[in-house]
Amino acid sequence: MDSNHRPGVYKTPALPTELYSPFFEVSKLYRAFQKKETLGEICYTDGMINDFIAKKLGEVLSFANVSTDTYERGRATLIAVIGAERVADIEEKNRIHGEELMRIATDAGVIDAVLTKATSDARELMKMRELYIANNWDAANEILEWSGFAEGAAIVHWGLIRGAAETLNNEALLTLCEEAINWHYELLEMAESELGSIGQDKATA
Q1: How far apart are CA 66 and CA 71, in angstroms?
Q2: d(CA 138, CA 157)
Q3: What whole-number distance in Å separates Cα of residue 168 and Cα of residue 175?
């Protein structure tokens, strides 16, 4: 999938204005998708994506958007722990997965439902994040502990969607699910490892 990706064709929606990032207009984004260049990729599908699954797609899109926002807000702290290249890689992977998800949703005719759900869930996720991290954006352990919650939630949500993709015989969605699940497991393991190192340092501080 990544080999066919052309940067700039799609734009991942930003987060709501009141929660630190520009609010994206669903209608404006949808018009942008209508004008997009196609990548020549065929989506083989036996079944249609229903409203339940569309909302689940919106939920995982919200995880990607909030993850990107988290790494933006905690950039300096996270770079000191995992390095600038790793932070940039995570942000890029979030963007690619978000764009591919929106392409699939657009092809399936459920983009409006997906974006609406993504917007509302991003608000709720960020409220939860603010309760957890509060103003401790200089504490790597707080950010990584939150990331552990978020990555675990992303994994199980993608697992549900994978089941739907298998039933619907949606090859593009199934491929994205496999990539996303593997990626979020990798990030969960990264958080666990880094928190272990932080624990060792704190034990002798």
Answers
A1: 9
A2: 29
A3: 13
Chain CA centroid to CA 38, Å: 22
Within 10 angstroms of residue 9's Cβ, the number of other Cβ atoms is: 14
The H-assigned helical ranges of 39-170 are: 51-73, 75-82, 84-108, 111-133, 140-168
**How does DSSP classify residue 4?**
G
For 21-66, how does the pLDDT look when each residue is reduced to its tens digit (9 = 90+)?
433 333 334 334 344 333 333 343 457 999 999 999 999 999 999 9
CA distances from 173 to 14, 28, 40, 99, 126 (A): 22, 24, 16, 12, 26
Q: Which two tokens stand for residue 194?
A: 């880094």
Residue with tokens 């869930």: 121
Q: Give the separation between CA 35 and CA 186, rounded to whole angstroms.
A: 35
C-beta of residue 77 within 8 angstroms of C-beta of residue 143 = yes
Cα torsion 185, 181, 111, 21 to 10°: value is 10
